[in-house]
Design goal:
The complex is a heterodimer of chains A (213) and B (185).
Chain A: H1 18-38, E1 55-57, E2 79-83, E3 89-92, E4 99-104, H2 109-125, E5 132-137, H3 149-152, E6 160-162, H4 168-172, E7 180-184, E8 190-195, H5 200-210
Parallel strand pairs in A: 4-5, 5-6
Antiparallel strand pairs in A: 1-2, 2-3, 4-7, 7-8
Chain B: H1 3-30, H2 35-48, H3 52-74, H4 80-102, H5 107-130, H6 158-184
Helix pairs in contact in B: 1-2, 1-6, 3-4, 3-6, 4-5, 5-6
Classes of the chains: A alpha/beta (213), B mainly alpha (185).
Chain lengths: 213, 185
């Protein structure tokens, strides 16, 4: 009987530990190069400013706390004198007309949804007679998503004041979360505040109540 | 440093990691059934087998440096879900290199559950980012969990980076474990 010599396969040799390091460094270098080549810097319109100075008169409202009785109800609402993104003067004053003031942040997903839902609704239904609706673009941060707010709100049919870089208007209204709505009665006093998503139908019901219907 | 470049860089790295994740899942699940996959698995083992835990350590270090860079240099405020993920990532930077140095693949017994918890939190946050209506409906002015600080290539956010990285660390730990078993067999 002839026995064939069975050759054992040579044990697999593992490569040097340097190989994965070299591969890793090469991959990182290629990725960094691709990232550099594909990074496009944005450009802005010099006439449009994302924040503008605002003048606030009156007492600031206390910070809103959801789930508790709002201490701001019955307090006179602060008045804001400022401008839109393009510099057109715009003020929110206690002029005898009930109003809703919507505070928005460009980076907030819930504000984005709110604007997305309200824009066609307002365009289709208009604003109920006897009330006014304003918005304030605040908490602006160029490092955060969906910047600049002027571009985001270009199609937004509500007159909008650009808050200053310190978000003074948001602070004056006692904002605690976005989106934030302050309802002001004809007497200039706060009727209620709300933070978070609000369906257009709900907002309109409140506006109609404010208008006395 | 330009945040757009940093986002793109981390986005591309994440894309690469996702591709590797998918490849490793295919290899780990299919190598016992397919000779081709077994051969590919052996080749990979030749190339990286001795360094699996070191690679996992490098990923943990990259994730830690990346998260600190985003919060401390670029200025992205970490939300509470980000913090829970940090609690998972940061100890791995210490534990994994020690295990790699000692060639202790039993580390997977202790680290895989931790990685799985981090994975779950990252997956939850990524879901919230895609469906903000699942959240309370309110954005925290300081650090909302639903905020997409980064949104590269149409789907890569910071939680997705964390998700992909934790997946790879988990797969590498499994790889190291099964690779050692095969060597002993």
């Amino acid at each position: 009987m002839s026995k064939k010599a069975v050759k054992k396969p040579p044990p697999r040799k593992r490569r040097s530990r340097k190989t994965p390091i070299l591969i890793g460094v090469a991959v990182l270098a290629v990725v960094a190069l691709v990232a550099l080549l594909t990074t496009v810097s944005g450009s802005g319109d010099a006439n449009i400013k994302q924040t503008r100075s605002v003048k606030i008169t009156g007492q600031a409202l206390p910070l809103y706390q959801s789930g508790t009785a709002d201490p701001a109800v019955g307090m006179p609402a602060p008045e804001i004198t400022g401008a839109t993104f393009d510099g057109t003067p715009l003020s929110i004053t206690n002029d005898g007309t009930p109003k809703a003031i919507i505070l928005l942040a460009h980076w907030c997903p819930h504000c984005q949804t709110e604007v997305e839902e309200l824009t066609p609704y307002i365009k289709a239904n208009g604003i109920p007679e006897g009330v006014e609706v304003f918005s304030i673009s605040t908490s602006v941060n160029a490092a955060k998503p969906n910047y600049p707010p002027s571009k985001w709100l270009a199609d937004w049919p509500v007159p909008t004041i650009a808050d200053n870089s310190n978000s003074s208007s948001a602070r004056a209204f006692g904002l605690s979360g976005f989106p934030f709505v302050v309802f002001v009665g004809a007497d200039g006093k706060v009727v209620g505040r709300n933070e978070g998503d609000m369906p257009p139908e709900t907002l309109y019901k409140i506006l109609e109540q404010l208008a006395g219907r | 440093m330009n945040p757009a470049f940093v986002n793109r860089f981390f986005g591309l790295i994440t894309l690469l990691i996702i591709v590797v994740d998918i490849g490793l899942v295919v290899l780990l699940l299919g190598r016992r059934r397919s000779a081709l996959l077994q051969s590919a698995s052996d080749r990979l083992d030749d190339l990286f087998g001795g360094s699996t835990l070191w690679i996992a350590s490098a990923i943990a270090l990259g994730a830690t440096v990346g998260s600190l860079f985003y919060s401390e240099v670029i200025g992205f405020n970490p939300c509470h879900l980000c913090w829970y993920q940090r609690i998972v990532w940061y100890p791995l930077v210490v534990v994994l290199p020690i295990a790699a140095h000692r060639k202790d693949t039993r580390i997977s017994t202790y680290t895989l559950p931790v990685v799985a918890i981090g994975w779950g939190i990252a997956a939850y946050q990524y879901t919230l980012q895609n469906f903000p209506s699942l959240d309370t409906g309110v954005c925290n002015p300081d650090a909302p969990c639903t905020l997409r600080w980064v949104w590269e290539l149409g789907f890569i956010s910071i939680p997705m980076m964390s998700l992909a990285g934790l997946t790879l660390v988990g797969l590498l730990l499994l790889w190291a474990r099964t690779s050692t078993r095969q060597e002993h067999e």
